[in-house]
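Morning!

This is the sequence you dropped in the shared folder:
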Amino acid sequence: MTPEVAAPIVVASTVVMALLFVSFVAPKSEERKAYARVRAIGRMSRLARKNNTVLRYHNGVPFVITFHRHGYSYVLEGRQVSRERLVKALGVGAEAVVAKVEKEEAMAAPNPTFITLPG
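The structure's back. Tokens below.
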């Protein structure tokens, strides 16, 4: 086989192998992204149940806000984020939604008193 014939065959076979590789790897990477989103929603749902609250949606974006002794905890995409990051990710009307949820969570929190009432 001469080099003039072998070079195009090698290039063509390399291109075909690369196309086959991409056709099998690209769908798997999309599946991994979808499964990662599902796992994040599962983590947020468990966190919400643990803290006696609910998983909420705004503009199709799931989030959880919980109230603790040290303040609020904001969870987006399965990770704790700052309030500013949450408001930016939720988009239009998010400031009002976050303020409403914070108010609801603060009302549901127990009153931390150390007074023992006689029974």
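Headline: Strands lie at 56-58, 61-68, 71-76, 79-81.

More detail when I'm at my desk.
O.
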